[in-house]
Amino acid sequence: MASSPYMGRSTAPAIPAHWRDFVALTKPRVMTLVVFTGLCGLLAAPGHLHPVLAFTAILCIALGAGAAAALNQWYEADIDAKMKRTASRPLPAGRMDRQSALHFGVGLSFFSVLLMGMATNWLAAAVLAVSILFYVFVYTIWLKPRTTQNIVIGGAAGAFPPVIGWAAVTGDITALPVALFMLIFFWTPPHFWALALFVKTDYAAANIPMLPVVAGEVATRRQIWFYTAIMAVAAMAPVLLKLTGLIYGVTALLGTGLFAVFAFQVLRRRETDPSRMQPEKRLFKYSILYLFLLFGAVVADRWLLA
Amino acid sequence: MTPEEDEQVRSRQKSRAIVMGLLLGALVILFYAITIAKMDGGQ
Known about the structure:
heterodimer, A: Tetracycline Repressor, domain 2, B: 0% strand, transmembrane helix (chain B), membrane (chain B), transmembrane (chain B), Cytochrome C oxidase assembly protein (chain B)
């Protein structure tokens, strides 16, 4: 990699990175869920925000998530190079120099936070800044290489978007956005560990202490079930606290029930061959749909039952 | 640098310049729209 014309460090690289590689650095596919939950937080909030300012708020959430992803890849370029899933990213593949990624990530972070503050309010901007800093410093740099519980606490970074969306409209943070934060927070472990079960070998190759690598698959399956139980409480909390209505209540009850069924199937299995982990893959895919459904239901409650 | 690499550099610089120009144009429109929205009362 050192001989690559893209990888000059002290001087500018011989061949500048393609603009598409800067887009790839922001992990656009991962951004979908972040944008969606942020939009739902914005739409569920009481009050009105001018459509242009609402668009800007969502744009800032997307740019902030992209900035955090770029900084994550800047820091983890060496680790990404060791994993098949991430080896083709711009930095490990040698299509971009690390300094460009750092400048891009830092610049985009400041831009997204400042634009959020100027377009909506500084509380939303502050929470956006905290979410970027949390993802980069607490998750990427501190927790991820050190503990098997990395994604439990680090998952908080992905739980901020609905709070940011809400704060952009109201200028405050009340019980419902906190409940939505808790839902994503406790959803992240079963979602991510289901993935980690069938890509375990990749994490082992990169020496990342993911739960299946360090504690084993049986412990991971138990932890998935444990956090699914806590997530179920978090999912039903908005109903019990009367923060949402009937649509969310029914969706959360049925959706969480199905989640628990899939998680229970994963708990009972002892399969170690990733190619035969269909229930684990089903839980991972369903977990994404589950979050879309529940957040969609929060918005439906506000707009259809209001 | 070989002639092929030189050509690639020019091609990359051109495409990046075009994208940067489009982004700056989009930002001008966005900031104008934000200003109008804020003048209308905003929230």
